[in-house]
Amino acid sequence: MSEHSALTGVLAQLQGAxxxxxxxDPPVCDWYQRACRTVGELVPWLAxxxxxxxxxxxxxxxxxxxxxxAWQRAREAVPDATLVxxxxxxxxxxxxxxxxxxxxxxxxxxxKYLIERYPDQQLAGNSKSDYxxxxxxxxxxxxxxxxxxxxxxxIGAAVRGPQRKPVRxxxxxxxxxxxxGANIDCHFxxxxxxxxxxxxxxxxxxxxxxxxVAYLKAADYRVARRSTEATTVKASFTRAPFISLIEQxxx
Length: 251
Known about the structure:
The protein has helices at 3-16, 18-22, 31-74, 81-98, 103-117; strands at residues 123-125, 134-136, 158-160, 165-167, 173-179, 184-186, 192-202, 205-216, 222-223, 235-237, 243-244.
């Protein structure tokens, strides 16, 4: 999809989220206008970067399999039998770690790629426990309160830590992955620009089939009921609202 088409589609989604953003805490910011600025800057850039992101992520995820294939071709030429046995053993041990590669690992690959590619180092990351995953460092968040713990007041946008990183702000970028067409889970529904990387695994091989974007609002989430107040809120969404950034039929 062209940059213009992707931007037009996401701005239409953002318009639908305006009432929610107008009511978003704290009211010291015009969250709708801030989100418009983020979408206007990030979506065209993401559309340009999507093919490279797709290729890079696919190469990284397939590197363990590719490495083993290369080693099988090279091992017969290695004269040191002890070294061959050691490498074989270490590759078997590494498989234990590879079995636990999950969506958050893929998200980390995507996040690192985007941070390194964004001009002038203006894209920064939050901790894994906070959202959004990425935010633009030239934004002014000085009017936000310090983050409070759950139960200490309304949950809204805030800053945390000595670096005063913005958390729970609706003008950043959230990174999500969908494996084999599964719905996407999150800990809490929140409005914001979302980038989704969709991939499939077959016999150990990984194929990244799409890179998509959407501005989500509360109605796009399905929130599971909590059995007790101590249970963490679980939310999920489908790919239905998402707009592909990859040209149809592109390899």
